[in-house]
Design goal:
This protein is of the alpha/beta class. It has one domain: Nucleotidyltransferase, domain 5 (2-Layer Sandwich), CATH 3.30.420. It is 33% helix and 21% strand. A hairpin with a 5-residue loop joins strand 5 and strand 6. The radius of gyration is 16 Å and the shape is globular.
């Protein structure tokens, strides 16, 4: 389903994902709510497209990313964790949590726009199906609405790439995807 890039070989694929929890990925887009920038981190499983955890913040600090990672690690453990080279993902607190769990860290290569494609697709979907359609009155309203949307995304929204199954069905192993 996805391509794993190892630290020693960022620019060449080493193998494809064929089961949940091989590769997780995270990224942080931002959007505006009532003249306030909000930063949203999600941790997604490449194989199932399942959003494992997420947090929203009004600051660019790493704490909300570390909280999301801690929650995600309470639900499982990937072999690889892929991010861009943003300061939230390269900080000591984030990388040490991954290292302590024996998770291999993969960071996007220079000019490798497709390294984090699954989380980029997620952001496009969230923005088009949720954020751009609503005018949130507050950060709290935005959090509540995003929680509802991400529950829908994981549990009800069928994905063509998942043979029209939901991310939850694939993530929990209820359905095996056909090898491509």
């Amino acid at each position: 389903m996805g391509i794993i890039r190892t630290k020693s070989s960022m620019s060449s694929p080493s193998k494809k994902t064929n089961q949940p929890n091989q590769v997780w990925s995270a990224d942080i887009p931002y959007f505006s709510v009532q003249k306030c920038l909000l930063y949203l981190v999600t941790i997604i499983n490449w194989y199932s497209r399942y959003v494992i955890s997420w947090r929203i913040s009004t600051t660019w600090e790493a704490d909300f990313c570390i909280e999301a990672l801690s929650e995600a690690l309470g639900k499982g453990k990937p072999e690889y964790f892929n991010t861009d080279k943003g300061c939230q993902f390269t900080c000591w607190g984030f990388t040490e949590k991954l290292k302590a769990e024996g998770i291999q860290i993969s960071m996007d290569g220079k000019c490798q726009v497709f390294d984090n494609i699954f989380v980029e697709h997620l952001w496009r979907t969230i923005k088009q199906e949720e954020v751009y359609l609503k005018e949130y009155e507050s950060v709290i309203e935005c959090k509540v609405s995003l929680r509802e949307y991400l529950d829908f995304y994981n549990n009800e929204r069928c994905h063509q790439a998942l043979d029209y199954s939901t991310p939850e069905q694939v993530h929990l192993g209820q359905l095996a995807l056909k090898a491509s």
